[in-house]
């Protein structure tokens, strides 16, 4: 990672200045790091130029100043880029980013999903690191994001090597989350996030908050089976899942008791009740922003690798279909506090998966 030496801060390019990129970037700027924002939303870029990037939420309300531009306006190269776009935009964003990373520079996927696998084809695996984040944040309007709750932040090389650059990036991320972790098993975290992500997608087919949805006793068996499908595929893929923020992958592995999985769900309910962000970004995409979600780039990986390894994933496959039906207007979200057709459809699939 050129452009830095021991004790020095690298210049950082943040590609995607929304919930994740904006929250992390603002913290880096406040720590004195040289940050440049890139975002495809021209109105967001212009607002940052005019008034700075404002971060709101329970941890304070502050505004930072930084250069911002759209991809078409960007010139120059950076030794370190944090790719913080929606997962479904990884390929196009990575290709647009490529000319702006120095030949010996590094790219960190700070996203949901297994996006390093996509970026490897663009940059080469030796230049790509993975990162896992689980903090609560949302894009509110041009120039404004909210940081609503702390959560795990993890970074690591894909091959597990604890390199000097991985240590440097870990140190950088600690400006945002002091408890950030440097791991030799980044894919273990990313696969666990796929497990938790599957649960979040299921909560997003209703207007219930994350915590309220996960707490509903009538749907607990369905959530457990969603998590178990993901963990069975992870094992078949040779991955050792890692625990975080109440999601205990061991509780969803073969041989674990129902009580263990229910205890993990209880922990997830408690974790989400502590956050000012009550609903997932998935729910916001469906209900507020009326746009496509990351379902194919998250749950889709589970279904894909399940098929490759001969591990059935019928409940996750149905969840993908339900999300697409909502995106395309064939279904609506279940009302909060009720038992609507989306949850009924998921529960109805349970006998087919042996529940």
Walkthrough of the structure:
- An eight-stranded mixed sheet has the order 5-2-1-6-7-8-11-12, sandwiched between helices. Strands 4-3-10-9 form a four-stranded mixed sheet.
- The protein has helices at about 20-30, 40-50, 90-95, 115-125, 165-175, 185-205, 210-215, 220-235, 260-275, 280-285, 295-310, 315-325, 340-350; strands at about 10-15, 35-40, 55, 60-65, 70, 80-85, 100-110, 130-135, 135-140, 145-150, 155, 180.
- With about 350 residues, the protein is of the alpha/beta class.
- The longest helix has 18 residues, at about 185-205.
- It has 13 helices and twelve strands.
Task: Name a few traits of the molecule.
355 residues, alpha/beta, 8-stranded mixed beta sheet, 42% helix, globular, disordered N terminus
Query: Level of helix content?
Result: 40-55%
Mean pLDDT score: 94
Sheet with most strands: 8 strands, mixed
Question: SSE order in H/E notation?
Answer: EHEHEEEEHEHEEEEHEHHHHHHHH
Number of strands: 12
Radius of gyration: 20 Å
Q: In one word, what is the shape?
A: globular
The number of helical runs is 13
- Oligomeric nature of the chains: single chain
Structural class: alpha/beta
Strand content: 15-25%
* Amino-to-carboxy terminus distance: 49 Å
Query: Going across the major beta sheet, what is the strand order?
Result: 5-2-1-6-7-8-11-12
Unreliable runs, pLDDT <50, ≥5 residues? 2-7
């Amino acid at each position: 990672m050129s452009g830095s030496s021991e004790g020095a801060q690298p210049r950082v390019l943040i590609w995607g200045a929304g919930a994740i990129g904006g929250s992390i970037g603002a913290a880096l700027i406040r720590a004195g790091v040289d940050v440049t924002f890139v975002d495809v939303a021209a109105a967001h870029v212009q607002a940052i130029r005019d008034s700075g990037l404002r971060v709101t939420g329970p941890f304070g309300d502050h505004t930072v100043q930084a250069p911002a531009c759209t991809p078409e306006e960007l010139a120059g190269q950076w030794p370190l880029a944090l790719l913080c776009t929606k997962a479904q935009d990884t390929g196009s964003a990575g290709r647009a980013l490529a000319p702006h990373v120095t030949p010996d520079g590094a790219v960190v996927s700070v996203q949901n999903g297994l996006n390093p696998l996509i970026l490897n084809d663009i940059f080469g695996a030796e230049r790509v690191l993975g990162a896992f984040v689980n903090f609560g944040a949302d894009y509110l309007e041009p120039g404004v994001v909210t940081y609503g709750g702390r959560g795990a932040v993890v970074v690591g090389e894909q091959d597990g090597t604890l390199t000097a650059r991985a240590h440097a990036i870990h140190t950088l991320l600690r400006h945002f989350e002091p408890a950030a972790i440097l791991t030799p098993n980044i894919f273990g975290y990313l696969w666990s996030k796929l497990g938790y992500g599957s649960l979040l997608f299921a909560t997003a087919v209703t207007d219930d908050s994350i915590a309220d949805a996960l707490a509903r006793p009538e749907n607990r068996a369905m959530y457990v089976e969603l998590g178990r499908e993901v963990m069975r595929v992870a094992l078949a893929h040779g991955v050792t899942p890692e625990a975080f923020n109440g999601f205990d992958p061991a509780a969803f592995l073969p041989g674990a008791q129902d009580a263990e999985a229910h205890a993990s769900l209880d922990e997830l309910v408690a974790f989400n009740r502590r956050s000012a962000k009550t609903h997932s970004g998935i729910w916001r995409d469906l209900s507020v922003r009326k746009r496509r979600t990351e379902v194919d780039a998250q749950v889709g990986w589970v279904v894909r690798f399940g098929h490759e390894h001969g591990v059935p994933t019928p409940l996750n496959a149905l969840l993908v279909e339900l999300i697409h039906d909502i995106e395309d207007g064939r279904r609506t979200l279940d009302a909060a506090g009720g038992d609507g057709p989306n949850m009924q459809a998921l529960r109805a699939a349970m006998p087919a998966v042996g529940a």
